[in-house]
């Protein structure tokens, strides 16, 4: 485990994040049901986390020329053209890189609501405010 500290230029605050890497991350088999996540990026302030899963090239599958089959241990499969080249986007005002065909991936995995639904559990995405707002109007 490694701890990272982020110094915010806006608020002059320091936040602490933990990178927790699964000791079995190098075992690529999707058959091990207890070994789907390769790591976790954890916000030590509030406990929220992002699971990390690595992409692996599937040498056994030939899609067509210049198209490579990729997979994650959690069972998801992609063509390299779905992922690369990564494209620039913004999340909460921060520049990030996302898969080339991220809309297509979201549609296939979660359906059309994934691109239009602004509510998830007790949160609602507020596009004009950079962030997520609780449905009871408290900013998260």
Structure, briefly:
With 140 residues, this protein is mostly beta strands. The chain is 12% helix and 41% strand. The two termini are 26 Å apart.
Description of the structure:
This protein has three helices and twelve strands. It is mostly beta strands. The relative contact order is 0.09. The model has no long low-confidence stretch (mean pLDDT 83). The two termini are 26 Å apart.
Mind sketching the topology for me?
Layout: E1 2-7, E2 14-21, E3 39-43, E4 49-52, E5 56-64, E6 67-71, E7 77-79, H1 80-83, E8 87-91, E9 94-98, H2 102-110, H3 113-116, E10 119-120, E11 123-125, E12 132-134
Antiparallel strand pairs: 1-2, 2-3, 3-4, 5-6, 6-7, 8-9, 10-11, 11-12
Descriptive labels:
single chain; 140 residues; mainly beta; 4-stranded antiparallel beta sheet; 3-stranded antiparallel beta sheet; 3 helices; 12 strands; 12% helix; 41% strand; globular; transferase; transmembrane
Q: Which consecutive residue ranges, at least 5 long each, have pLDDT under 50?
A: none
Distance between the termini: 26 Å
- How many beta-strand segments? 12
SSE string: EEEEEEEHEEHHEEE
Strand line-up of the largest beta sheet: 1-2-3-4
The biggest beta sheet is recorded as:
4 strands, antiparallel
Shape: globular
Mean of the pLDDT scores? Answer: 83
DSSP helix count? Answer: 3
Indicate the structural class: mainly beta
- Rg, Å, rounded: 18 Å
- What percent of the residues sit in helical stretches (DSSP H or I)? 10-25%
β-strand percent reads 35-45%
GO molecular function: glycosyltransferase activity
Keywords: Glycosyltransferase, Membrane, Transferase, Transmembrane, Transmembrane helix
Membrane topology: Single-pass membrane protein
Subcellular location: Membrane
